[in-house]
Amino acid sequence: MLEFDRLEIRQDDFALTAHVSIPRGAHLAIIGPSGAGKSTFLAALSGFVDPAAGRIVWDGTRIDGLAPAERPVATLFQDNNLFPHLTAARNVGLGLRPNGRMSARDRVEVEAILSAVGLPGMGDRKPGQLSGGQQSRVALARAVLQDRPILALDEPFAALGPALKAEMIDLLHGIATRRGLTVLMVTHEPADALRLGGQTLVVAGGAVTGPFETGPLLADPPAGLRDYLG
């Protein structure tokens, strides 16, 4: 269970509260108006924003005081954060060995995850030699290879076209399901939330609410979300 226990985030005149519980293995979209705090909420989970009050608890253990590297969270950002001078395999390998020193066994594991995301035999290519979709696959492979039970994604596929984005969300869903990962994905697109399946958190009006079943939520959204969805 992932719990945000009376969490409060404050930055200048911005304030956001969250008091929600998320079952282990759930796949949740995070939606809401621009500027409502979706990315800030995710950053608090990942350890890049310090809450002003409250707790973040994973499986009974408080994690909000831990550094990002010590948390059970792998984070994937929109820009992928790939190193242009490193090959795809070496970029992925950073998920295993942040110092870049991989053993023969590590290299086998990297090749296996590259194959799992549809990039077999492409480990020697650098990011500049890959398409946008292929770069997203490399970034996803690196995040998964960190072997952390929570995967936090901040609009990771926003730059992709609709068909490729749908393909990546399906890939994410499949990998996360097989590995039993808890997924939280920020998106602006209701279609992405529906495709991810499961449930949705709503960030609006200074609060995080939910989880809600995604289909019924989008069919009859509350006022704050209805205004955003138009």
TrEMBL record:
The keyword Transcription regulation belongs to this UniProt entry's keyword annotation: no
Gene Ontology molecular-function annotations: ATP binding; ATP hydrolysis activity
ABC transporter domain span: 2-230
Residue ranges that the Swiss-Prot or TrEMBL entry lists as coiled coil: none
Domain of life: Bacteria
ATP-binding recorded as keyword: yes
SUPFAM superfamilies: P-loop containing nucleoside triphosphate hydrolases
Keywords on record: ATP-binding, Cell inner membrane, Cell membrane, Membrane, Nucleotide-binding, Translocase, Transport
PANTHER family, per the entry: SPERMIDINE/PUTRESCINE IMPORT ATP-BINDING PROTEIN POTA, THIAMINE IMPORT ATP-BINDING PROTEIN THIQ
Descriptive protein name: ATP-binding cassette domain-containing protein
Organism name: Palleronia sediminis
